Structure formats: C-alpha cells, structure tokens
Amino acid sequence: MSKINLKNKRNMSMLMDFYELTMSNGYFKNGLKDKVVYFDVFFRKVPENGGFALMAGLEQVIEYIEGLKFDEDDIDYLRSKNCLDEEFLQYLSSFKFTGDIYAFEEGTPIFPNEPILTVKAPVIEAQLIETMILLTLNHQSLITTKSNRIVRAANGRGVMEFGARRSQGYDGAIYGARAAYIGGVIATATTLAGQVFGIPVSGTMAHSWVQLFEDEYTAFKTYAENYPDSSTFLVDTYSVLQSGVPNAIKVSKEVLEPMGCRLKGIRLDSGDMAYLSIKARKMLDEAGLTDCKIVASNSLDEYTITSLFNQGAKIDLFGVGERLVTSKAEPVFGGVYKLVAVENENMEPEARIKISENAEKVSNPGHKKVYRFFDKDSNKAICDVITLAHEVIDINKPYTIFDPVHIWKKKKLKNFYVKELQVPIFKNGEVVYTSPCLNDIRSYCLSQVNTLWEEVTRFENPHTFYVDLSKELWTLKDNMIKKYSNEE
Amino acid sequence: MSKINLKNKRNMSMLMDFYELTMSNGYFKNGLKDKVVYFDVFFRKVPENGGFALMAGLEQVIEYIEGLKFDEDDIDYLRSKNCLDEEFLQYLSSFKFTGDIYAFEEGTPIFPNEPILTVKAPVIEAQLIETMILLTLNHQSLITTKSNRIVRAANGRGVMEFGARRSQGYDGAIYGARAAYIGGVIATATTLAGQVFGIPVSGTMAHSWVQLFEDEYTAFKTYAENYPDSSTFLVDTYSVLQSGVPNAIKVSKEVLEPMGCRLKGIRLDSGDMAYLSIKARKMLDEAGLTDCKIVASNSLDEYTITSLFNQGAKIDLFGVGERLVTSKAEPVFGGVYKLVAVENENMEPEARIKISENAEKVSNPGHKKVYRFFDKDSNKAICDVITLAHEVIDINKPYTIFDPVHIWKKKKLKNFYVKELQVPIFKNGEVVYTSPCLNDIRSYCLSQVNTLWEEVTRFENPHTFYVDLSKELWTLKDNMIKKYSNEE
Question: Which UniProt keywords apply (chains A, B) (predicted)?
Fold first, then answer.
C-alpha cells in the first residue's frame, strides 16, 4: 500500500492562494516571522439543512504538511512574480512546519462554529497552509456528509459509489471515493481508489457490452459464460420488461443454472425505477429467481431513494454517481480558517476576533477546545461545549449550558461523561497521531452517527444539536464584540 | 514549463470504472480484442438552462492517453481481484492505445447531442479510456462554461478566480483554474495553477493580516510600506464604512501619496455589496482617490453580479470563488460515452443504437461528423449539422435543414460557409494535434462565443441553437428506432 501511495503522492506545496505568500513576505519583512498565532477551521452551516456534518480528510492534511517543501522550480517561479523579497524566498527554500495542530478525528459528527482543526504556529507557517487545509477538509467532509445521508436513506440496503466520470477532477473521484466510503458506501467503481485505499471495487457491464453483440441474449449469455459466479446484467439497453428481464431469465435458465450457478442481479439504469423494479421483481420471482438482486443506478440520491421506497420499489442495491461524488444539491462545504489568537510576551494566547457586517460571520475568539457531552445511560450525545483551552470539565458536578444568543435559556446537565474532540496531530512540527486504517475510520464514523438522537439525524427540519460556549468563552467574546461595536 | 508539467504529471491509467476491466476481460476472452468500434462523447443538456456550453479539457485527455500504461503494481492489484484472466493481465501489461480520436477544439461552443469527441479503436482500448475521457471533459467543460457565464455577466469588468479552498479536491482547484481561465477570467489566486499553466496570479491580504496587527490602520500602513505599488486593502474586518475605508484613505494620504504611489484598490468581502460599494466609492472619490478600484468577493456568481449592477453597485473587479470553481448552481456536466458503430468485415462502420426507456436518451447512431454553418456576411453561427462521416457539404448549393422531431419544419440555407468541428487528435495511436497555448485557447474561446447571436447567449430563456441531423443520418436513426421499437 505505501508503495502505491508514494507513486501517487504529489507535492502540493504550491497549491495555495497567492495572498498567503504576499502576506507571509510582509510578515517576514516586518519581523513577525516568529510570532506565534492560532488559527481555527470551522464552518457555519450544515449542507442541505442537515442536522450534522462529518469530519474527513485529516489523513491527507497530515500527508500534505509532512511533505511541505519548496524546491528550486517553485522558488524560481515565485521570484518571477517580482513582488517577494529574496530573503523571504531563501527562507521558503528551507521551509519546514514547526507548529502544533489539533483536530477532530475523521468520521466525527461536526457542527457549525466548532474549531474542527486548530493550528498553533509561527504566523508564516500557519498562513501558508491555509488553502490546502481548507480544500482538503472542505472536500472530503462534504462528500462524507453526503454519502452518509444517502446511506441512511437506503436504510440497510447497500450503496455503491459510481461517480468518477462526473466528478470535479481526478482527485474529486479518488478522494471522493475515500470520503464516500467513510460515510458508509460499501464499494466504489473507481479502480484507482480501490488500489490506493483498499476500498472494495465493483463493476460488471455497461450498455456498450450489450450493444457490441448481435443481440441482448448473446451479450448476457457471453457474460454469464465468462463470469458465472458474478453475473449482473444491465437490462435497459433496449426494453427492460420486453427484452432485458426476459433475456436475463433465459440466460439464467439456459447457462447459469445448468452450471450450478445463480443469477446475481439485474441493473436498471433508466426509466421509471419504481414501476420497472416492481414488475421485474415479479418476473424474476415467478421464474424462481427470488435471490436475484435488483440494482438501480440512475441519478439517485437520498431524496429519490426515499421516494422509491415510498412507492414500493423493489430495489436491493443502489449505484449512486454524480449526486454523491459532487454533492450535487449543495456542492460546497464552507469551512473557513480564521485567526483567533496571537501569542503575547508571556507566551499566552491573546484572543483576536473578526467582527464583519454579517452577524453570523463573527468568529469565536481565543485558543479553545471542544467537549462532547454524552448521557451516561444511553451513550447518546447531549451537546458540545466550546471552552477556552485551559478549562476543564468536572464530570462529577452538574454543568450548566446556556444558549449563546438567548442566554436566559439554560439547562443543567447531570449524569454525563465528556470526550475532548480535538486530539493532538502535530507537536513542534512532528506528527504525533497515527491515522486509523480506512475501515476503522468508517466504522468509527458509523458508530458516532449512532450516538446522535434521531431528531438530529432526520432530513426534514432536524433538531439543532446544541453547541454552546462556556461562560468564560462567552464573556470574552461578548466583551470583544462590545469593544469593536459602534457604541464605543 | 514542460519540466513543471512533468513534475505534476501522474499516471492516471488506473482511474477507471472497474466495469471497463470486467468488460474488457470478457472481450479478450471472446476473441473480440481487435474488433474496431466507434464511441461518441456527447451531453444532453446545457447546465443552468443556458444556450450553449464550452469544450475544455482536451489537452489533458491527450496527456492521459499518451501516458497510458499499467505497471507491475497495477497488474498485481488487478490480479488480486480474482476475476480477470492471466492472459488479459499480460495483454494489459503491454497495453498501448493504437486508435484514432477526433474532437472539437478547446474553447468551442458545444451543444447537446453533438459528438464532441469520437474514438475509433479496438474495443478494449476504446472501453478502457471511457472514464478518464468523460471525467476530464465533464469537469473542465463545466467550469469553462460557468466561468464564461460569470465573465459575460461582469460585462467588461475583470473577474478573478478565487475558489481553491472550496474546490472538490486538488485537481478541482488546479484544472478548475485552467478551465476558468479559458472561459475568460483574467487571473487566479491559485499559485500552482499559475506555475503549471502560466495563468496570471493575484492576491493581496486576508482578514488575518488585519487582525495580526494592533489595529487596522497599522495593518494597512505596514502593507502599504511593503507593497507601495500594489496595495489593495481588505476593508471589512471591523466595519467597512466606519473604519475600513477611512483607514484605507488615511494610509493612502499618509504613506502612499508621499511616496508618489496610488492606492490600487479596496476589497469588500461581506455585507451589502451594493450599498457598501456606493458609499465607499463616494468616500474614495471625495478623498481624490477616483482611480482606486473597488473589488468585491463574497459568494458571487452571474446572478449576484447582474443584481449588483442593477442596484447601481460601484464595483470594478470581482473575485469569484466557490460558485465558479464548483459551478455551484449545477455542479455536474452530463457528458456520456456511447457505442455508435462497430466495424464490419469490409472495415466499414456499422451503426449501433441505444434505445432506452427515456426518449431523450436515444443516441445518434453511426460514425459521424459535425459541420458548423456560418453566415458569410455576419460571420455569425447559424446552426450545426451532424452528418455521417462520409458526407460532404457543398457550400455552393443551398442546404436544407430540418427539425429532427418535427420534420416538416424546414429551412433552406444560402450564403454560408462551414467549418468541420471535429479535428484529428490521434491517428493509429499517435498524436497528430498540438494543443495551442492556454492564452490562444482562451482567445479562441472568447472569439467563438462572439460568433453566437445574443439570443443564444442570454441567460433567460435563450434561443435554442439548431443542431440538426443530415437527411441520411436522420433516416438511418429512424429506421433503427423502428427496428427496435415495440411495433415490430
């Protein structure tokens, strides 16, 4: 595996917004190179008005930061822009990340305004890695979140990821398959994702196979002879009910059954899936093929899958393409990277805030951490509380949470345990975290989704999971807003 | 440039749907390896109900096919799937594409159902390259089409691509910037895209720069001292009108003007852009900074830009991010790859068709080409006609086009010249086409969009550009549909 990973590893050091460089050059010239700062990654809104999102992409963030390096070509290119100083370019040529990173583990349910990743580093280092951290987490968190929605809609039936041909670039397919797998799909059609990440791959035939032979019967027959143990026929090249299903049954009887094999499945890729699957199921059952699965694969997502079930569709497996791999209904995960603190002379984080004209864009200041509260009896997640980094939650005492906007809304929590959601990833530039294998990340993800109440996971008007601020953090923020507001 | 390209070149041979391999293994076992077939790439619907789309990604398709190669690791991985034959794996290990490819040039306006790329090759070769061809063309054509929409809405004001952090994977950012540039943006923020493709890069400061200094004034002052010739200040960290713009003006007076420099611009990234830009413009003008540009950059696209102009916004430059780089409003370009002909014993293409339950999914059969008709006087595009490959249009005679559905709707064309849109890309496995440099592709694209009538390019209910079939092609298709339809 590592060999294959290496083959596909690219140095992404230059994948950054150019302003990271103009700013860093400025920091460098103004003696701020060693100024230690804190940046948080957080997002503001769950895609598709869902109740939660899922963290993914951390493993690739780690790989990127470990491999960060500007080679001679890079420096030459930057020099050619004629706006960066030679001393800064020299500094870049021996650049190495030396800071700390804390982050939520992959597969963790995440909510708006939580610091899902925090960087503490000298300002240039922290600034230069902004674009890649956001790009990586935004992309994979988006797809994992979407995948899990579709998987939950499928309600125990398997979902396969089929989207490579419609994905937004090669990495959209490769890392999209990885993210989809974390979210719960059982397989991908993308061979390279299978090779690199060990995801199960699946695939049988396209319309071209059927068209290449003189007729549909011969096409199915030939496939059955070649793959007697894994035949799934695509039955909609000509007419599903008049030719596709009858030919599939005929080949099952004439080719597979005499060999002691069973027809594994038929696949519908167009037309009215509810009507066709019900009719096809009946035909298959009447022919004794009750164990033959029906696979559906035409522009599916959680909405169409739910609708198909409501119509009584007889579908056992879903192949989901473009709407999963691009998160078509909402293709952007809006994670941002904001400066929240600057280290003072005593090496303590001094909080910073971004006010903005849009109230919801006001950031949570300071170096923070996040505690997830779980109910001791049910093991269900109760709420998250964002605190300043030095705060410790005493699980032996009741803990009062309050709404950060309507502060009179309070609730006293008892009988809980807590989990710190940020774990150390880098310490002084060295990785101190080992990413679990992909199957473990996937299992962790599915188990963590199960800690959420159904009210939070439903698609329609989900209950808002509480993400509150500790009293100390709330007070700090309130004071800073007042300081910058117009009244003063 | 080539050195840099090489550095970033990856072998994408394994990026394919697994069914390409199961089918190819089947073709191999059944002696169909050398069967020559024809596949067309076409799409069915212009994104966002636009009047046209734009072709992009061909250069990357060429690079991919030239580099196609399965190495030992790849073969080992495929062997481990336990469903492909050893002879086939041996064949793959010395695989080379030997076929022909014809395609529309990058930057060409494209319309539904046209074969924008045609592959003629032995069936295994043609099958294995399906996923990558679709992925590449779908992604870049989507983004070029979107970019051009935004650029047209900006109506002569410059548009810069700022989307890397929200793009779907690394290639979403890199090739997204390339595609956006073809569509007409003037610059990208993505440094790597500048390095690899020579696209102009731009960038000045983020909120973190402003936050790092003790106050906004000091932040602007420091930036101005470092970059006196290229200062654009981000003015919304605290309050645009009460602090951002006043501080920008102050720094212009106190720092830039004494050095003989001018304030280049201010950037708005939140709030009511129409209101703020009008107020800011007034403040800048009253301070004598009439040449200071106002840049806007908060969740923009062609719709918000049009609306801003309608509200009288005073914006000179747009920075467009997530809605461009993901084509947020419609993030999928639905190009498909369909078998249209199989070579017979006389080495002639014998047409194939895919019927499907959905009428609009019935493909155009046979080996075809596409002629674009231009009016001799205005040089405007009149229509496209898809013909069989052997057909020649005599430009000295009137040519009658007819609607493929309502065939009584006819039109006789005179005073025209034609352009064949498919050009040879590969011949017998060798590249016979040289991709123009990116700037030339971009110029070609913008000039070709100008050949379309305004009725076709408008956003609301654009006129449908005629894409007709020649009489011979229409008759062939009609006969094939009848053959497969239920009546027979």
Answer: Glycosyltransferase, Ligase, Phosphoprotein, Pyridine nucleotide biosynthesis, Transferase
